Every structure is written in structure tokens, then in C-alpha cells.
Amino acid sequence: RAAIGTQPGERVVLYVGRVAAEKRVDLLPEAIRGLPNVRLVIVGDGPFRAELQRRCVGLPVRFTGYLKGEALAVAYASADAFVFPSDTDTFGQVIQEAMASGLPVVAARAGGAIDLVRHGYNGYLFTPGVVTDLRARLRELLANDSRRITQGLAGRVAAERRSWPSVMDELMGYYTRAMSHRRLGRRPG
Predict the structure, then answer these.
(1) Cα 118 versus chain centre, distance
(2) What is the DSSP string of the chain?
(3) Residue 127: how many CB atoms within 10 A of its CB?
(4) With bands split at pLDDT 50, 70 and 90, how would you rate the model's confidence at 5?
(5) Which among 52, 66, 69, 106 is least surrounded, fewest beta carbons within 10 Å?
(6) Is residue 174 part of a domain?
(7) 69: confidence class by pLDDT, cuts 50, 70, 90
(8) Does some domain include residue 70?
(9) Which residue has the higher pLDDT, 182 or 189?
(10) Spacing of C-alpha 151 from chain mean position
(11) Where is the Glycosyl transferase family domain (predicted)?
(12) For 88-115, how does the pLDDT look when each residue is reduced to its tens digit (9 = 90+)?
């Protein structure tokens, strides 16, 4: 945790991605305001970074800039939860990365996040653009270590099911069933 500038006893909420207005990162400073022992770590860079840094003055926020490889893996491994406020992303690869790292995800109930995050199972979904709902979901998740760990493990299992080997195994299973139906003169159904 020291590698990303956090203190012992802090809960670390991680954002990884482009720091741009359309990613709704503007919600993050207000979302963590008033949450005890919480530090927000923002990994990434972009056109909204200077403005976001201005809005975060006096708050427990750390900007790391762009990270990749081992440094990015350390950031994920050092966090307690992942936040994804974007309501425009069609998939959200970083959600997959966070889940593969065993992190529960708090994401906007929009776009690709709704296909990846099961509310109350591997994270929470909040009403897009509503900072009070985002804060409530973060508070709920961070207040219960058992729930946070259980949801993180569930996310990891879900991410493993979406790995390339897993997807290929599933696809090959469909082909095998289709071919066996054809040999038997039946239509797949």
C-alpha cells in the first residue's frame, strides 16, 4: 500500500482510467467526502486531471498518473474497492481487471457495467450521476469487511469465466453439441 501512497488503516478506493469529464470522475471528490478512513487513488491521466486535482484539495486523494504492468498490478492489489462512475462506457475493461484482482466494484448502473456487476453479489450499482447514491454504496461496501471480501471473490470468479480460455471452452462446447446433433440428424435446440 505504501507504493501508492496510502496510510495504515485507510480503506483504499481505486479508480483506473482516463481522467476526463465524460468518465464522470467529477463525482469522485464528493463521493468520498465524509467517508471515514477512506483514501481515493486515481490512476490515469487526461484532460480533466488539473480540474479534478483542484476539486480534491483537502481531501484524501492520491493521483498516480498513468501506470502499467507491475505498477498497475500493485495499485489493484493495494485497493479495497474499485469505483467506476462512467455512464457512457460500453464495456469497461477496467471493471474486468478490478474483478480479476479480487476487488468488489461500485459502478454506475449504465452501459457495460450492468453486464459485469451484479448488485449485491460482486459489487454495487448506483444511479448514474447521483453522488449521494455513489457515496451510500461505497459506505455500505467499506463498512463490512466480510461483505467486501465475499463480493471481491465473487467478482474474481466472474472474471475468470470471461477469460479467453473460458470463452473458448464454452464456444467449443457449442460447436461440439451442434456437430453431434447434425450427426444424429437433429436440429440443435
Answers:
(1) 12
(2) -GGGT--TT-EEEEEES---GGGTGGGHHHHHTT-TTEEEEEE---TTHHHHHHHTTTSSEEEEE---HHHHHHHHHH-SEEEE--SS-SS-HHHHHHHHTT--EEEESSTTHHHH--BTTTEEEE-TT-HHHHHHHHHHHHT-HHHHHHHHHHHHHHHHHTSHHHHHHHHHHHHHHHHHHHHTT----
(3) 15
(4) confident
(5) 69
(6) no
(7) very high
(8) yes
(9) 182
(10) 12
(11) 4-148
(12) 999 889 999 999 999 999 999 999 999 9
Residue holding cell 507504493? Answer: 3
pLDDT above 90 covers what percent of the chain?
A: 78
**Number of domains, the chain:** 1
Q: Which residues pair with 16 in a beta bridge?
A: 43
CB count in 10 Å sphere of residue 70: 9
Which backbone phi and psi does 121 adopt, to 5 degrees?
-110, -55
Q: pLDDT tens, 127-136?
A: 999 999 999 9
Q: Are 76 and 98 in contact (CB under 8 A)?
A: yes
From CA 50, how far away is CA 56, in angstroms rounded?
10
Residue 170 belongs to a domain: no
